[in-house]
Write a structure and sequence with these properties.
13 helices, alpha+beta, 330 residues
Length: 330
């Protein structure tokens, strides 16, 4: 009987050892040994840390056009937002500290894409980017006509462009559209040209409307700048602004976002991020200038370039949205 009891005890010990050691070994072996060999999707492990802690690691990686890959992203420190641009609508939400987020993605075309954080994560949040080089058939790149025009005109997009004359109250697009229908035939041809308005400021347009009083003239200018804007696109741009711009420039465009004070302390942005709701700041600038600054970023400031994050169309729509800070769409 003792012999049988000893044998039973030995089997129990062996079973316990198997449960404690063997089962985890089998699971880990399958997870990291067998499963990757059975899975044809390539996995790229990415650590998303605040820029002070290394930023995205790796900071660059390569894939092939048409290849489906899995990004396995972890955060060791704070909450990060995960998105890829330009375009495509790749916004993957947040990854929390200690969490691992898996994303399967296929890049349809060759080019350079950007993995970026769209949640304010640190004073150097704007550096939170990683380059993704996608190889395949070479794509013909077409020059950006707006950037070319700015270059040809030798316009310094970093210089202030203050408006000398600003409206006493926020101009109304709705009032302006009604008035525009009445006076359009008497307006200077320049202000009626979309191409002219693209490269000139609202203040310049206001100066040409000499037959209208000040309030009426500004309402007409508001209608000219935003009367044809697509409300759906404005809503989409508002979402992009909230994720990518509001942390510095403020939710209401007053330059008072949560990161503004830090950037000033670090010596970036002079007196602070641009206040889009300030008519003196905005109404002296053209859409071209704002577009160029958005896509290239600010030289010597904390303003990153969004040319690798937004498409040209998204960038142009974002400029329309910025005008809503000084023109009422109601």
């Amino acid at each position: 009987m003792k012999f049988l009891a000893d044998r039973a005890e030995q089997r129990a010990i062996i079973a316990l050892i198997f449960i404690v050691i063997g089962v985890p070994v089998i699971i880990l072996g399958y997870q990291f040994g067998i499963r990757p060999r059975l899975n044809t999707i390539r996995t790229i492990d990415i650590v998303a840390a605040a820029p002070e802690n290394g930023g995205f690691q790796p900071a660059a990686f390569e894939v092939n056009a048409g290849e489906t890959i899995r990004l396995r992203v972890s955060s060791p420190d704070v909450v990060h937002g995960l998105a890829i641009g330009p375009g495509e609508g790749w916004d993957f939400g947040i990854v929390k500290p200690g969490e691992v987020k898996e994303i399967e993605i296929t890049f349809p075309e060759a080019g350079r894409y950007t993995l970026y954080c769209n949640v304010w994560c640190s004073p150097s949040h704007w550096r939170m980017r990683a380059a993704i080089d996608v190889f395949g058939d070479a794509l013909a790149t077409t020059p950006d006509p707006i950037i070319e025009r700015l270059t040809a005109q030798e316009i310094n997009i970093d210089a202030p462009h203050p408006a000398e004359n600003v409206p006493a109250e926020k101009p109304s697009v709705t009032r302006g559209k009604t008035l525009l229908a009445e006076v359009q035939s008497s307006l200077p041809p320049d202000v009626l040209s979309a191409e002219w308005r693209q490269s000139h400021s609202p203040a310049e347009a206001r100066a040409l409307l000499i037959n209208l009083d000040d309030a009426e003239a500004w309402d007409v200018v508001a209608a000219l700048w935003l009367g044809d804007a697509d409300p759906v696109q404005l809503d989409e741009s508002q979402v992009l602004y909230a994720k990518n711009c509001a942390a510095c420039h403020g939710a209401t465009g007053n330059g008072d976002g949560i990161g503004a004070a830090t950037l000033i302390e670090q010596g970036y942005m002079g007196d602070g991020p641009a206040a889009f709701a300030d008519p003196t700041t905005m109404l002296g600038a053209s859409s071209d200038i704002l577009y160029g600054k958005l896509r290239r970023g600010g030289m010597g400031t904390g303003m990153p370039g969004f040319g690798t994050v937004f498409t040209r169309e998204q960038s142009a729509q974002m400029i329309d949205y910025l005008w809503t800070f000084v023109f009422s769409t109601e």
